[in-house]
Each structure stands twice: as structure tokens, then as C-alpha cells.
Amino acid sequence: MKFPKTYQLKEIASLIGCDFIGDESFPVLGMNEIHVVEPGDIVFVDHPKYYDKALQSAATIVLINKEVACPVGKALLISDDPFRDFNKLTNHFKPFVPSSSSISETAKIGNKTVIQPNCFIGNNVTIGDNCIIHPNVVIYDDTVIGDNVIIHAGTILGASAFYYKNRPEGFDQLLSGGRVIIEDDVHIGACCTIDRGVTGDTTIGKGSKLDNQIQIGHDTVLGKKCLLASQVGIAGCVVIEDEVTIWGQVGSTSGITIGEKAVILAQSGVSKSLEGHKTYFGYPAEEARQKLKEMAYVKEIPNIINKLKNQ
After folding, report:
1. 11, 37, 42, 145: least buried by Cβ within 10 Å?
2. Strands 279-281 and 263-264, how do they pair?
3. Domain with 265 in it: what CATH number?
């Protein structure tokens, strides 16, 4: 998430009430999660296991819960609770704004686009030309939809990320200030859910087609011309490259990459990154031919046991 203007380090420290290390006029351009940070961004870290990763990331401002040596060319914000203070910043720069109508006055809707009854279109939503938005679709604030997009009934774009910190008193949600981006020529089936990014974008690439009842997690990037069948569940921060086919009831873990033109067969579980141009099956998903051979071998175990008994 980029801020509307450049802020100074001292201004950000004042917003969240914390100390800082570095030049008080150090420029702060935005805030992001570690997998999408750029120079000028704030990243937060609250566990020693990830200190080095955050300090060595592209982020030039690190919101951290321990005073450590500041890397050259960077600045630190010292907080007793970086998770809480990251939420404070999200709340400041992207506060929740209630809507007063089913189609916000700030929404921009293109030529020849049809919005069917009972849809909700949030603040600052942009919808391109020649789209069809079927009944009971909910499009949260800041969503961007390209041209020639079809979205079927009951789909929800832009709900919050499923991202929580486990505290003694209960689960504390990391607030979502990102967006959903739907590129041109995308078709989305009925009752799909696509969560917004925490600070960045969840993106559905040009020409991709989604069946009914599909869940796409926060900050996931789906490439161009992908096909996803019914009941696929993709976790957050996944990169799915172009022309990937994922068949029904496949589930994935977060933070992985599925390579270009990969095919994942139905009911597989993807627990690690997969190379492109291959077909996968099973849990954990592996190359389909090898997995099917293994299953055939397992079926032979009773015969092998019987032969051993009869020797």
C-alpha cells in the first residue's frame, strides 16, 4: 500500500507512538508485507526468527519489537507490539468507510456494463466496459475490474484476509488495506470468494476462468489464461503462473509458486512449490505418473504377502 504522499520517519513514529532509529526526515512511501516490499516501504516483524529476513528485505523502514543495529540506508521503528502498530497504520491510511447506497457514488462503471439487481458495489470500485455483474454479487471497496468480465451470482470480491495473531485473550486480526484486481476477459462463477490483499493486491490475470465455489486467498496472484474448477481453495500469497489448470477440490498451502502450464488433478493437496509443464496428483501433490505407479504398487501388497505366506 502506497501512502498518498511521502511522510517523514518522525511523522510515522508519532502516528503510532513509538521511538525510531534513523534520520527523522527519512522518507516513508508506504507499507507492505515482506513478500511485496519495495524501497520506501515499512515492513513489520515481531519474532526473532524473522528479524534478519525483515532487516535484509527491500523494505527501508522496519517496524520491530527490539532495538537492533540498523542496516545502512534504512531506519527502524521500535515498538512493543509491531502487529498492533501495523494495524494502526492500516486503520489510519485505509479506514473503513461505511456505504450509504448499494452502488457507491464513488464507483466508476464502464460503458455497456450491466449490474443486475441486489448487487453491492463499494467505495472507489472501478468496473470496465462490457461487463455483466449478476445478482447478489458483493464487490468491496477499491476493487478494480477490467473489460469484458462476467461475475456470476453470489460471488464476493474483497473480503478481509484470513490472517490472525494468536494472543492469550483470543485471535487478533491483521487488518486488510489492499485490493482485488480482476483483469480483462475474466469469468468468475457463482459463489466464489476472492479476498483482498493485506497491503497489496490479489490479482486474477487476463483471460482466466473460475468455476463455481472457489476460494482465492489474500495477495495471491493468478496468471493469465488459467482454468480453476469447482471447489478449489488457494491460500494466501500464492503465485500461480500463466495457463495453469487446477481441477476440482484441489487445496494449496500459502506462499508457494505453481509453474506455468502445470496441471493439478482433482482432490490433490499442494504443500510445496511445483514446476511448470507437468501434471500432478495426490497429497502431497507429485508428478501424476509416479503417484499412480505408487498406488498400483500399494494394491499389490496383499498379493505379495500371500505369496510370502505360501512359500
Report:
1. 11
2. parallel
3. 2.160.10.10
pLDDT at 186: 98
C-alpha cell at 234: 488457494
> Are residues 135 and 270 part of one domain?
yes
Q: What pLDDT is attached to residue 134? A: 98
Which whole number is the average pLDDT over 140-154?
A: 98
Per the structure, how many domains does the chain have?
2
- Taking a C-beta distance cutoff of 8 angstroms, is the pair 242, 227 a contact? no
Q: How far is CA 90 from the centre of its chain?
A: 16
In a domain, 35, yes or no: yes
Q: Percent of the chain scored above 70 by pLDDT?
A: 100
- How far apart are the C-alpha atoms of 93 and 77, rounded to whole Å? 17
Q: In what order do the strands lie in the sheet with 61-64?
A: 2-8, 27-31, 41-45, 61-64, 75-78, 19-21
Residues labelled as active-site residues: 218
**Shared domain check, 254 and 169:** yes
pTM of full prediction above 0.85: yes
